[in-house]
Fold this sequence. Notes:
This protein is mainly beta.
Amino acid sequence: MKSMHKSTLATAVSLSTAVMVGQAHAAGFALMEKDVTGLGQAFANLATGNGESSGLVGNPAAMTQIDGTAISGGVNYIMPSFELQSGGTATRVAPAALAGGISDPTGLGGDAGQSAGIPNLSIVHQLNDKARVGMALTVPFGLATEYDDGWVGRYHGIESHVEVIELNPVLSFDVTPAWTVGGGLTIQYAEAKLTSAIDGGAVCAAGVASGDITGPAAVACGAYTPGTRAADGHVEIEGDDWSVGYNLGVLWQPTEATRLGVSFRSGIDHDLEGDADYDMPVPLDAFPTFADNPVRAGLDLPPSVGASLTHAFNDDLTASLGLLWTGWSSFEELRVEQSGAGQSDIVTTENWDDTLRVAIGGEWRFAPRWTLRAGTAYDPTPVPNSEFRTARLPDADRIWASVGLGYEISKRWSVDVAYTHIWLNDSSADSTTESSIRNNLNGQYEGKVDILGVQLNAHF
């Protein structure tokens, strides 16, 4: 029997290993939710700090706002929802002899959004009048999505679980009373688990027609109809990696009322290593193409530049304007390397665009111990058009509306809570798997996200 690796493995793996993409809560697959104090302003003050240790996440130079020692810890509970709408279809477009619809025993997949809690922890310590050291633990990228097993787009993806955990040790120094610089390392651990179905009936039909499947296997293949769940195989891919980058920041405070911050985070390249496990129908189980094997996939996380301007109109009222540029154009393709004999690289073209997020927010100290925060943001998607909008990432332009409340329990302790609702524009998907057996998913997606956060802060 021949390996059939170019026609079948590409179908099985090319989209199931579109690792690190899904319905995250900033554009692309980034997570903005690294602290709760900033969430209340839609992170408009990301690069100018928030007076708590958690401000170092957006700009290490913001640690200049901390005297003594400060600690913050909290969680953002993210509740996403996105669904393929009525009328969504999946069809086989190649080879021409097998073109046709895909059976959908359980329909459009249901609500694929999976709720999750995103923790954050940070600490800042003042070394002397000019220098401070800090550490933050956050989750800057991640997703958790799952469609119904037999949904119409199951060959494009079923389950996606991705998490990137980051440890960020930083140092800042007051160059002058008005200027502070800071920087540190970004140490990341990335892991992923992804599953999808394989159109075993189509693989059988193509293999018999080409002569790759003969004898008893060809006879057994006659019982498998292309595009039906009974003929499906499945693949599960898992991998992880450690990698290191860096971040830099500067904060300028020309007056007591005004500060301007700029920060930079480097891109980080991960080389995920793991395994691909296959579960195939009997006629295909012995093919080398579907042998369990170690896999590798490169993941290029993008660089970003943030800038914020914050102005205090008086002792009680402050406003911020924030920009965040993310270099998503570095995400041109996803290449998966197979280690099995005769198994070729699998490539998924992405062609993403750079994005610019714009946010406006403010806070009002309306009582001696109480602070009200609010903000809004426009966050465009890096996905250029429907051709590159996949089931794992039906990403769309989004609008943020945030509100937060801070309460000073005592001179040392305070608590922040925040709520955000994100509207995602309706978006169309018209994506096709890049393989000899090609499947197209076409339809409209609707989505939204709700985020609820709570954070405890301490100053000593």
